[in-house]
Amino acid sequence: MDFSSTHAALRSLKRRPTTSDALKNLAEKLEGPFAGDGKGLGDDTQDVEQDVLELLGTEEWEGVSVGFLLAKSLVDNKGQALSPSFLRSLLAHCDQHLEHAEPRVRSLVASTLGALTRADDESSSGCTGLAAYEFFRKRLSGAISKNFERTTETITDVISGAENVAVDDTSGWKALETSFLALKEFVDAVGRPFIDGGHLNDETVGYIVSGATVHINRHVREASYQIIRSILDACGTLSGSNAPQQGDKLAHTFAEACAVGMQDNWSQVRYAASVANRSLLKALSPADREQFYPRLLPRMCLNRYYLADGVKLFSQETWRMFMGEEGREMVGKYAQDVTDYYCMASELDNHCVRESACHSIAEMAEKVAPQYLATHVDRLLKALLVCFFDESWPVRDAACVASGRFAGAYPEECRPSLEKLYERWFRHVGDPIWSVRDDSATALGAVCKAYGEEAYDKVSAWVTENLPRAKQQGAESAEQHRRKHNDAKAHTGNQVFSCGSLAPKLRKGGCSDCQVTRPSEPWEFSDGAVYLVRELCFANPEVGVTFFEELADVARLTHFVQADCLRETIWKQLPAMGEAVGKNVFKRHLDVFLKPLFDTLSRITTSQLARHAAASCVRQLSKFIGPSIFRGRLTDSQREIMDAEVQLGGPPGPSAGLMGMTKAPWATMAS
Predict the structure, then answer these.
(1) Considering only CA atoms, which of 285, 263, 156, 178 is closest in space to residue 227?
(2) Closest residue by Cα to residue 356 from 317, 322, 323, 390
(3) Is residue 178 part of a domain?
(4) Among 98, 202, 212, 481, which is disulfide-ready with 224 (CB 3.0 to 4.6 Å)?
(5) What percentage of the chain reaches a pLDDT higher than 90?
(6) How do residues 266-293 score in pLDDT, each as one tens digit?
């Protein structure tokens, strides 16, 4: 069913194969009046009211749900022009279906109640405005208290026919979530009079806060934070003379609830809590906010790096809104609380939170003044070391980057742990995940800049040993590789991996030394060494260029399937290496790369990604060195390849020429 508009809902109802003919005829009859989402309704709505009530009286949940959507549209567009009898009947239907078995019906009941409450109560119907809430107050309160604990009722499974089956976690609390949403609609509609009129008693607040912080069902928690947001918006302010009588109590209660919600495992709940937190801060004066920052500020700060974009972007906007240009000083002021939370977050079961903690720790080390962090450096560094051993590769990736930035910011404080850090960095430069290899090299590049000669020696020694390791890779043809990967027996009964992780989180804290990670292959060490050569070129060009001969030698390898992956990395990084060492120096080493570079372009078996990287490398090097000079270094056959069109991802063929290509080939074909 499509409930995006009244017209879409009616069309959807007509298309459903289970809809009765009578219901389809009724839907077709209502399509005209509700074209444009009810804005085309005439002055006389009596016939439409009767048709909507007929829909609400059907047994099929689809008809009831569409009936409530149409009724809401009627109330929104016509309000008190509707007959009192229709409004009373509508309220009775809301009462009847408040705990309907279908959640979509219950949600539409909640939104219809909100529309009734927002309508001006100028008639004697007693069905709109605050009177609608008064009619429902006890009913709603009873539904919340009755359904707050999980039902012990059992059902008969529709598919298997098994009897006495426990209801699932979503259905186990029946109408609790939608009852909370109905309460939210009432608060949004009534506004401040809801608070000042004594409708928000301690029992209701208790259910809301418990639903937000301790309830096991994530949908209930999310709905609870939506109510908290609505209550805070209705209050307007919790500070000063205009605050409601229970303003201070609400501020303390909701601040603690927001702190709990902003570290919830479910992104939707975390987002709802972040929205409620912004409303809380808006309702407080700058002076009154300070007392809540020890709990709120660390969570606000970490959520700016949370994996879910909605949480991340909203938290960044909230941070700018309330911290302005004083964010660094505020983090420094509450450094103890922020450090405590970051260290705790680095050991939580949620790998998204651990990853966010790594990024946050690195930012804190780089941006917060040393006088604030002097006593916290050891704890933050230990937290990063724990994440280095994490079973989730995005966490290890984040730990690599963060530790490099941390060492760059506090080189002397990190020196006692340097040997352990080197061991982890070098281990991850050969990690099976390419982004971990890249980011570990970036971290070592920062370390080279921080520690100078001693770091160059260690990194150079590792590159010398590992750059040629691809030559030790076992020979394997594409056909052999394909057979190995399509062997069902080899992939049956093995560990099942979760998204974003090479294994489930087996032990808290990530101290299992990643024992389930597959061993790295020789070519992956060479691939990581390529990234390190790039970093050496930036940190110390004289050291970086000493590896160019070996780099070109590795680019010539073709005896294993992943050789194209290795060449792809080389051709992607070579232009950056050239710019790092300078044009004059790079021109002296250009010739050793030309043959393997153009062999990549001319070989018909080259992978699309490697071919694309090689073509891009040719364009960039020609621009960097100068088109005439670059062309003068080429052989006749290489110039022919350059003059031929090298389609990215396809074999070379006759065309306008590689260097003349200004658009991607698929753009040319589409035009």
Answers:
(1) 178
(2) 390
(3) no
(4) 212
(5) 42
(6) 999 999 999 999 999 999 999 999 999 9
Total domains, the chain: 1
Interatomic CA distance for residues 640 and 128, integer angstroms: 81
Q: Angle, nearest 10°, between helix axes 434-451 and 418-429?
A: 140
User: Which pLDDT band, with edges at 50, 70 and 90, does 224 fall under?
Assistant: very high
Burial of 145 per CB tally in 10 Å (0-12, 13-18, 19+): middle
| pLDDT at res. 239 | 85
pLDDT of residue 48: 85
For residue 26, being part of any structural domain is answered with: no
Query: Which among 257, 109, 265, 130 is positioned nearest to 175, based on CA atoms?
Result: 109
Kindly write down the DSSP assignment for every residue of 323-342, as one continuous string: HTT-HHHHHHHTHHHHHHHH
Q: What is the largest CA-CA distance in the chain?
A: 95
> Which residue segment(s) compose the domain that 643 sits in?
463-474+518-670
The position carrying tokens 């060009």 is: 541
Question: What are the tokens at 458?
Answer: 């260690």
Residue spans of alpha helices (H) in 262-346? 267-283, 286-289, 293-302, 309-323, 327-333, 335-345
By the 8 A CB rule, do 567 and 613 touch? yes
Token duo for residue 308: 């879910």
Write out the two tokens for 471: 């030559």
Q: How much is the average pLDDT of 412-438?
A: 90
Three-state SS string across 99-147, please? CCCCHHHHHHHHHHHHHHHHCCCCCCCCCCCHHHHHHHHHHHHHHHHHH
What is the helix (H) or strand (E) element at residue 556, kind and residue range?
none
Report helix, strand or coil for 165: strand
Q: pTM (2 decimals)?
A: 0.80
Examine residue 659 and state whether it is found in any structural domain, yes or no: yes
- Is residue 655 in a domain? yes
